[in-house]
Protein backbone atom coordinates (compact mmCIF):
# COMPACT_ATOMS: atom_id res chain seq x y z
CA UNK A 1 0.00 0.00 0.00
CA UNK A 2 1.31 3.47 -0.83
CA UNK A 3 1.22 5.70 2.21
CA UNK A 4 -1.37 8.43 1.66
CA UNK A 5 -0.11 11.92 2.52
CA UNK A 6 -2.14 12.60 5.66
CA UNK A 7 -1.46 15.60 7.96
CA UNK A 8 -0.01 14.77 11.37
CA UNK A 9 -3.06 16.04 13.25
CA UNK A 10 -5.36 13.87 11.15
CA UNK A 11 -3.22 10.85 12.00
CA UNK A 12 -3.71 11.67 15.70
CA UNK A 13 -7.45 11.70 15.20
CA UNK A 14 -7.33 8.39 13.31
CA UNK A 15 -5.75 6.88 16.44
CA UNK A 16 -8.56 8.30 18.54
CA UNK A 17 -11.19 6.85 16.19
CA UNK A 18 -9.42 3.52 16.42
CA UNK A 19 -9.60 3.75 20.23
CA UNK A 20 -13.33 4.36 20.09
CA UNK A 21 -13.90 1.54 17.58
CA UNK A 22 -12.00 -0.88 19.82
CA UNK A 23 -14.31 0.10 22.66
CA UNK A 24 -17.33 -0.56 20.43
CA UNK A 25 -15.93 -3.97 19.51
CA UNK A 26 -15.58 -4.84 23.20
CA UNK A 27 -19.26 -3.94 23.54
CA UNK A 28 -20.12 -6.12 20.49
CA UNK A 29 -21.47 -3.15 18.53
CA UNK A 30 -21.51 -3.95 14.79
CA UNK A 31 -22.24 -0.60 13.15
CA UNK A 32 -21.86 2.99 14.25
CA UNK A 33 -23.16 6.23 12.72
CA UNK A 34 -20.66 8.98 11.94
CA UNK A 35 -22.51 11.15 14.48
CA UNK A 36 -22.06 8.62 17.29
CA UNK A 37 -18.42 7.85 16.45
CA UNK A 38 -17.61 11.57 16.16
CA UNK A 39 -19.24 12.27 19.52
CA UNK A 40 -17.28 9.47 21.22
CA UNK A 41 -14.06 10.88 19.74
CA UNK A 42 -14.89 14.45 20.68
CA UNK A 43 -14.94 15.83 17.12
CA UNK A 44 -17.59 17.13 14.72
CA UNK A 45 -19.16 14.55 12.35
CA UNK A 46 -17.97 16.61 9.35
CA UNK A 47 -14.40 16.37 10.68
CA UNK A 48 -14.67 12.60 11.04
CA UNK A 49 -16.01 12.15 7.52
CA UNK A 50 -13.32 14.41 6.09
CA UNK A 51 -10.57 12.54 7.97
CA UNK A 52 -11.72 9.16 6.68
CA UNK A 53 -11.81 10.32 3.04
CA UNK A 54 -8.00 10.75 3.28
CA UNK A 55 -7.67 7.02 2.77
CA UNK A 56 -10.65 6.58 0.54
CA UNK A 57 -13.34 5.67 3.05
CA UNK A 58 -16.45 7.59 2.06
CA UNK A 59 -18.92 5.68 4.27
CA UNK A 60 -22.37 4.69 3.13
CA UNK A 61 -25.09 7.25 3.69
CA UNK A 62 -27.69 6.09 6.19
CA UNK A 63 -25.95 2.82 7.02
CA UNK A 64 -23.15 4.01 9.26
CA UNK A 65 -19.73 2.39 9.50
CA UNK A 66 -19.04 -1.27 9.98
CA UNK A 67 -17.07 -1.27 13.24
CA UNK A 68 -14.90 -4.29 12.43
CA UNK A 69 -14.18 -3.17 8.88
CA UNK A 70 -13.30 0.44 9.67
CA UNK A 71 -11.09 -0.68 12.54
CA UNK A 72 -9.19 -3.09 10.27
CA UNK A 73 -8.74 -0.32 7.70
CA UNK A 74 -7.35 2.04 10.36
CA UNK A 75 -4.96 -0.62 11.62
CA UNK A 76 -3.65 -0.96 8.09
CA UNK A 77 -3.31 2.80 7.56
CA UNK A 78 -1.63 3.37 10.93
CA UNK A 79 0.86 0.59 10.31
CA UNK A 80 0.10 -1.23 13.54
CA UNK A 81 -0.97 -4.45 11.82
CA UNK A 82 2.39 -6.02 12.65
CA UNK A 83 4.04 -5.78 16.07
CA UNK A 84 6.45 -2.86 15.71
CA UNK A 85 9.72 -3.18 17.68
CA UNK A 86 10.56 -0.22 19.93
CA UNK A 87 13.52 0.40 22.25
CA UNK A 88 13.41 2.38 25.47
CA UNK A 89 16.40 4.42 26.60
CA UNK A 90 16.56 5.58 30.22
CA UNK A 91 15.11 3.33 32.89
CA UNK A 92 14.63 5.74 35.81
CA UNK A 93 11.24 6.29 37.47
CA UNK A 94 9.39 7.20 34.32
CA UNK A 95 11.23 4.67 32.13
CA UNK A 96 10.43 1.84 34.55
CA UNK A 97 6.77 2.76 34.50
CA UNK A 98 6.79 2.82 30.69
CA UNK A 99 8.36 -0.65 30.62
CA UNK A 100 5.51 -1.97 32.74
CA UNK A 101 2.84 -0.18 30.69
CA UNK A 102 0.81 -2.99 29.14
CA UNK A 103 -0.96 -0.63 26.75
CA UNK A 104 1.94 -0.54 24.29
CA UNK A 105 1.76 -4.22 23.49
CA UNK A 106 -2.00 -4.13 23.16
CA UNK A 107 -1.65 -1.35 20.58
CA UNK A 108 0.88 -3.19 18.43
CA UNK A 109 4.20 -2.11 19.92
CA UNK A 110 6.73 -4.36 21.59
CA UNK A 111 9.56 -3.01 23.71
CA UNK A 112 12.38 -5.13 22.34
CA UNK A 113 15.00 -3.93 24.81
CA UNK A 114 15.68 -1.18 27.34
CA UNK A 115 18.99 0.61 27.89
CA UNK A 116 20.45 2.53 30.79
CA UNK A 117 23.87 3.61 32.01
CA UNK A 118 23.05 1.78 35.18
CA UNK A 119 22.48 -1.90 34.43
CA UNK A 120 21.91 -3.17 37.97
CA UNK A 121 19.38 -6.04 37.94
CA UNK A 122 15.76 -4.85 38.13
CA UNK A 123 13.91 -7.91 39.38
CA UNK A 124 10.41 -6.57 38.56
CA UNK A 125 11.24 -5.38 35.07
CA UNK A 126 9.49 -7.30 32.25
CA UNK A 127 12.32 -6.44 29.83
CA UNK A 128 16.08 -6.84 30.29
CA UNK A 129 17.96 -3.57 30.84
CA UNK A 130 21.12 -3.54 28.71
CA UNK A 131 24.20 -1.34 28.69
CA UNK A 132 24.18 1.69 26.37
CA UNK A 133 27.01 0.07 24.38
CA UNK A 134 24.54 -2.60 23.20
CA UNK A 135 22.23 -0.11 21.46
CA UNK A 136 23.84 -0.25 18.04
CA UNK A 137 23.79 -4.06 17.90
CA UNK A 138 20.14 -4.35 18.99
CA UNK A 139 18.90 -1.59 16.66
CA UNK A 140 20.63 -3.14 13.66
CA UNK A 141 19.85 -6.79 14.45
CA UNK A 142 16.13 -6.15 14.99
CA UNK A 143 15.80 -3.34 12.39
CA UNK A 144 14.35 -1.13 15.11
CA UNK A 145 12.95 2.15 13.75
CA UNK A 146 11.33 3.61 16.87
CA UNK A 147 12.74 4.67 20.23
CA UNK A 148 11.33 6.07 23.46
CA UNK A 149 13.69 8.46 25.26
CA UNK A 150 13.32 8.89 29.04
CA UNK A 151 16.85 10.02 29.91
CA UNK A 152 17.78 13.21 31.83
CA UNK A 153 17.73 16.45 29.84
CA UNK A 154 21.51 16.74 29.78
CA UNK A 155 21.87 13.33 28.09
CA UNK A 156 19.00 13.59 25.60
CA UNK A 157 20.60 15.18 22.54
CA UNK A 158 23.67 12.94 22.71
CA UNK A 159 21.55 9.80 22.90
CA UNK A 160 19.36 11.02 20.02
CA UNK A 161 22.38 11.72 17.78
CA UNK A 162 23.69 8.24 18.49
CA UNK A 163 20.51 6.28 17.82
CA UNK A 164 19.67 8.28 14.70
CA UNK A 165 23.10 7.31 13.34
CA UNK A 166 22.17 3.63 13.92
CA UNK A 167 18.93 3.96 11.94
CA UNK A 168 16.21 5.13 14.35
CA UNK A 169 13.59 7.14 12.42
CA UNK A 170 10.98 8.03 15.03
CA UNK A 171 11.42 9.17 18.62
CA UNK A 172 8.94 9.58 21.43
CA UNK A 173 10.76 12.06 23.68
CA UNK A 174 9.96 12.34 27.40
CA UNK A 175 13.07 14.39 28.23
CA UNK A 176 11.87 17.93 29.01
CA UNK A 177 13.96 19.58 26.31
CA UNK A 178 13.79 20.39 22.61
CA UNK A 179 15.90 17.91 20.64
CA UNK A 180 17.05 18.43 17.06
CA UNK A 181 17.01 15.70 14.46
CA UNK A 182 17.88 15.57 10.77
CA UNK A 183 15.18 15.69 8.09
CA UNK A 184 13.34 12.41 7.73
CA UNK A 185 13.40 11.67 11.47
CA UNK A 186 10.17 12.27 13.41
CA UNK A 187 9.94 13.39 17.02
CA UNK A 188 6.86 13.53 19.23
CA UNK A 189 7.40 15.22 22.59
CA UNK A 190 5.56 14.28 25.75
CA UNK A 191 6.45 16.95 28.29
CA UNK A 192 4.36 16.48 31.39
CA UNK A 193 5.21 19.84 32.97
CA UNK A 194 4.35 21.63 29.73
CA UNK A 195 0.95 19.90 29.71
CA UNK A 196 0.25 21.07 33.26
CA UNK A 197 1.48 24.58 32.50
CA UNK A 198 -0.83 24.69 29.51
CA UNK A 199 -3.82 23.75 31.65
CA UNK A 200 -2.76 26.17 34.35
CA UNK A 201 -2.99 29.07 31.91
CA UNK A 202 -6.61 28.34 31.15
CA UNK A 203 -7.84 28.11 34.74
CA UNK A 204 -6.40 31.43 35.92
CA UNK B 1 -3.80 40.92 35.36
CA UNK B 2 -6.58 40.17 32.92
CA UNK B 3 -5.90 36.93 31.11
CA UNK B 4 -5.10 37.69 27.47
CA UNK B 5 -6.99 35.49 25.02
CA UNK B 6 -4.13 33.35 23.71
CA UNK B 7 -4.74 30.25 21.53
CA UNK B 8 -3.97 26.92 23.16
CA UNK B 9 -1.15 26.11 20.77
CA UNK B 10 0.53 29.43 21.47
CA UNK B 11 0.38 28.68 25.19
CA UNK B 12 2.20 25.40 24.48
CA UNK B 13 4.94 27.29 22.69
CA UNK B 14 5.20 29.80 25.56
CA UNK B 15 6.00 26.84 27.83
CA UNK B 16 8.69 25.72 25.41
CA UNK B 17 10.22 29.22 25.32
CA UNK B 18 10.18 29.22 29.11
CA UNK B 19 12.04 25.88 29.08
CA UNK B 20 14.72 27.31 26.80
CA UNK B 21 15.04 30.49 28.88
CA UNK B 22 15.52 28.44 32.05
CA UNK B 23 18.32 26.59 30.30
CA UNK B 24 19.91 29.93 29.34
CA UNK B 25 19.65 31.11 32.96
CA UNK B 26 21.43 27.96 34.12
CA UNK B 27 24.19 28.89 31.67
CA UNK B 28 24.28 32.50 33.01
CA UNK B 29 23.26 33.94 29.61
CA UNK B 30 21.81 37.43 30.08
CA UNK B 31 20.36 38.26 26.66
CA UNK B 32 19.21 36.18 23.72
CA UNK B 33 18.29 37.13 20.17
CA UNK B 34 14.92 36.11 18.80
CA UNK B 35 16.77 34.01 16.20
CA UNK B 36 18.70 32.05 18.85
CA UNK B 37 15.69 31.56 21.13
CA UNK B 38 13.51 30.49 18.19
CA UNK B 39 16.13 27.99 17.05
CA UNK B 40 16.43 26.48 20.55
CA UNK B 41 12.64 26.13 20.69
CA UNK B 42 12.40 24.67 17.19
CA UNK B 43 10.22 27.44 15.70
CA UNK B 44 10.70 30.24 13.19
CA UNK B 45 11.80 33.65 14.60
CA UNK B 46 8.66 35.26 13.13
CA UNK B 47 6.54 32.75 15.06
CA UNK B 48 8.36 33.55 18.32
CA UNK B 49 7.92 37.29 17.86
CA UNK B 50 4.25 36.88 17.01
CA UNK B 51 3.67 34.64 20.06
CA UNK B 52 5.23 37.15 22.42
CA UNK B 53 3.14 40.06 21.13
CA UNK B 54 0.06 38.24 22.50
CA UNK B 55 0.96 39.56 25.93
CA UNK B 56 2.44 42.84 24.82
CA UNK B 57 6.12 41.96 24.54
CA UNK B 58 7.39 43.52 21.35
CA UNK B 59 11.11 43.05 22.07
CA UNK B 60 13.69 45.72 21.30
CA UNK B 61 15.13 45.62 17.81
CA UNK B 62 18.83 44.78 17.81
CA UNK B 63 19.10 44.21 21.56
CA UNK B 64 17.52 40.79 21.90
CA UNK B 65 15.52 39.67 24.91
CA UNK B 66 16.60 39.97 28.52
CA UNK B 67 16.54 36.32 29.64
CA UNK B 68 15.61 36.98 33.27
CA UNK B 69 12.93 39.52 32.35
CA UNK B 70 11.24 37.51 29.62
CA UNK B 71 11.25 34.41 31.81
CA UNK B 72 9.58 36.33 34.67
CA UNK B 73 6.97 37.64 32.26
CA UNK B 74 6.22 34.14 30.97
CA UNK B 75 5.93 32.79 34.51
CA UNK B 76 3.33 35.48 35.19
CA UNK B 77 1.40 34.79 31.97
CA UNK B 78 1.46 31.02 32.45
CA UNK B 79 0.22 31.34 36.02
CA UNK B 80 3.06 29.32 37.47
CA UNK B 81 4.29 32.14 39.73
CA UNK B 82 2.64 30.49 42.73
CA UNK B 83 2.88 26.77 43.49
CA UNK B 84 -0.31 25.37 42.01
CA UNK B 85 -1.85 22.45 43.93
CA UNK B 86 -2.61 19.34 41.86
CA UNK B 87 -4.10 16.00 42.85
CA UNK B 88 -3.28 12.66 41.27
CA UNK B 89 -5.91 9.95 40.94
CA UNK B 90 -4.80 6.39 40.24
CA UNK B 91 -1.51 5.20 41.74
CA UNK B 92 -0.68 2.18 39.56
CA UNK B 93 2.59 1.87 37.62
CA UNK B 94 2.24 5.13 35.74
CA UNK B 95 0.71 7.02 38.68
CA UNK B 96 3.58 5.96 40.97
CA UNK B 97 6.13 7.19 38.45
CA UNK B 98 4.30 10.51 38.14
CA UNK B 99 4.35 10.91 41.94
CA UNK B 100 8.12 10.51 41.91
CA UNK B 101 8.59 12.86 38.95
CA UNK B 102 10.55 15.77 40.40
CA UNK B 103 9.94 17.94 37.34
CA UNK B 104 6.44 18.93 38.44
CA UNK B 105 7.62 20.73 41.56
CA UNK B 106 10.41 22.45 39.70
CA UNK B 107 7.86 23.83 37.24
CA UNK B 108 5.54 25.23 39.90
CA UNK B 109 3.18 22.33 40.58
CA UNK B 110 2.81 20.50 43.85
CA UNK B 111 1.04 17.17 44.09
CA UNK B 112 -1.03 17.85 47.20
CA UNK B 113 -2.42 14.35 47.51
CA UNK B 114 -2.83 11.11 45.59
CA UNK B 115 -5.89 8.86 45.59
CA UNK B 116 -6.44 5.22 44.77
CA UNK B 117 -8.99 2.53 45.50
CA UNK B 118 -6.15 0.53 46.95
CA UNK B 119 -4.62 2.42 49.88
CA UNK B 120 -2.03 -0.15 50.96
CA UNK B 121 1.09 1.60 52.30
CA UNK B 122 3.61 2.54 49.57
CA UNK B 123 6.86 2.98 51.48
CA UNK B 124 8.72 4.70 48.62
CA UNK B 125 5.97 7.15 47.75
CA UNK B 126 6.77 10.81 48.44
CA UNK B 127 3.05 11.62 48.83
CA UNK B 128 0.43 9.87 50.97
CA UNK B 129 -2.07 7.78 49.00
CA UNK B 130 -5.58 8.43 50.30
CA UNK B 131 -8.89 6.65 49.81
CA UNK B 132 -11.14 7.87 46.97
CA UNK B 133 -13.69 8.96 49.59
CA UNK B 134 -11.26 11.69 50.71
CA UNK B 135 -11.20 13.44 47.32
CA UNK B 136 -14.03 15.87 47.96
CA UNK B 137 -12.60 17.05 51.30
CA UNK B 138 -9.06 17.58 49.92
CA UNK B 139 -10.23 19.37 46.76
CA UNK B 140 -12.43 21.76 48.73
CA UNK B 141 -10.03 22.37 51.63
CA UNK B 142 -7.07 23.17 49.37
CA UNK B 143 -9.10 24.82 46.57
CA UNK B 144 -7.52 22.37 44.12
CA UNK B 145 -8.32 23.22 40.49
CA UNK B 146 -6.11 20.71 38.65
CA UNK B 147 -6.07 16.91 38.60
CA UNK B 148 -3.98 14.23 36.91
CA UNK B 149 -5.94 11.09 36.02
CA UNK B 150 -4.04 7.80 35.73
CA UNK B 151 -6.87 5.35 36.42
CA UNK B 152 -7.94 2.44 34.19
CA UNK B 153 -10.09 3.33 31.17
CA UNK B 154 -13.23 1.84 32.70
CA UNK B 155 -12.99 4.11 35.75
CA UNK B 156 -11.97 7.35 34.03
CA UNK B 157 -15.30 8.99 33.16
CA UNK B 158 -16.80 8.25 36.58
CA UNK B 159 -13.80 9.77 38.38
CA UNK B 160 -13.90 12.81 36.10
CA UNK B 161 -17.60 13.43 36.73
CA UNK B 162 -16.98 13.24 40.45
CA UNK B 163 -13.99 15.61 40.66
CA UNK B 164 -15.57 18.13 38.30
CA UNK B 165 -18.57 18.27 40.65
CA UNK B 166 -16.12 19.12 43.49
CA UNK B 167 -14.60 22.04 41.58
CA UNK B 168 -11.76 20.63 39.43
CA UNK B 169 -11.38 22.81 36.29
CA UNK B 170 -8.41 21.28 34.47
CA UNK B 171 -7.52 17.64 33.91
CA UNK B 172 -4.38 16.00 32.56
CA UNK B 173 -5.73 12.65 31.39
CA UNK B 174 -3.47 9.59 31.01
CA UNK B 175 -6.34 7.10 30.72
CA UNK B 176 -6.40 5.93 27.09
CA UNK B 177 -9.95 7.06 26.43
CA UNK B 178 -11.85 10.17 25.40
CA UNK B 179 -13.50 11.75 28.44
CA UNK B 180 -16.29 14.31 28.28
CA UNK B 181 -16.44 17.36 30.50
CA UNK B 182 -18.82 20.32 30.77
CA UNK B 183 -17.97 23.71 29.23
CA UNK B 184 -15.40 25.61 31.24
CA UNK B 185 -13.41 22.49 32.16
CA UNK B 186 -10.16 21.89 30.25
CA UNK B 187 -8.72 18.48 29.39
CA UNK B 188 -5.28 17.67 27.98
CA UNK B 189 -4.79 14.06 26.97
CA UNK B 190 -1.49 12.24 27.13
CA UNK B 191 -2.03 8.95 25.37
CA UNK B 192 1.25 7.11 25.02
CA UNK B 193 0.01 4.49 22.57
CA UNK B 194 -1.51 7.21 20.36
CA UNK B 195 1.85 9.00 20.29
CA UNK B 196 3.60 5.81 19.18
CA UNK B 197 0.90 5.07 16.63
CA UNK B 198 1.32 8.56 15.23
CA UNK B 199 5.07 8.07 14.81
CA UNK B 200 4.55 4.64 13.37
CA UNK B 201 2.46 6.09 10.55
CA UNK B 202 5.27 8.37 9.43
CA UNK B 203 8.02 5.73 9.30
CA UNK B 204 6.13 3.23 7.18
What does this structure look like?
Two copies of one chain form a homodimer. With 204 residues, chain A is of the alpha/beta class. The first copy, chain A, folds into two domains: 8-78, Orthogonal Bundle (Arc Repressor Mutant, subunit A); 84-196, NAD(P)-binding Rossmann-like Domain (Rossmann fold, 3-Layer(aba) Sandwich). Chain A has helices spanning 8-26, 34-41, 45-53, 67-78, 93-99, 103-106, 135-141, 153-166, 192-202; strands spanning 31-32, 65-66, 84-89, 109-115, 129-130, 146-149, 170-173, 186-189. The first copy, chain A, has a six-stranded parallel beta sheet with strand order 5-4-3-6-7-8, with helices on both faces. A two-stranded antiparallel sheet of chain A has the order 1-2. In chain A, helix 1 (8-26) packs across helix 2. The longest helix of chain A has 19 residues, at 8-26. Chain A is globular and about 60 Å long. The model of chain A has no long low-confidence stretch (mean pLDDT 87). Chains A and B meet through helix 1, helix 5, helix 6, strand 7 and helix 9 of A and helix 1, helix 5, helix 6, strand 7 and helix 9 of B.
Q: Any descriptors?
A:
homodimer, alpha/beta, Arc Repressor Mutant, subunit A, Rossmann fold, 2 domains, 6-stranded parallel β-sheet, 8 strands
Amino acid sequence: MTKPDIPRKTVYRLSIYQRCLQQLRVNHTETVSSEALAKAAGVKPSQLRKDLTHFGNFGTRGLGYNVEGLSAQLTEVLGTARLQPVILIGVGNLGSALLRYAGFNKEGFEITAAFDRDTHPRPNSPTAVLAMEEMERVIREHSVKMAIIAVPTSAAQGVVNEIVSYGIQAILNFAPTVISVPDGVWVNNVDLAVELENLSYFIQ
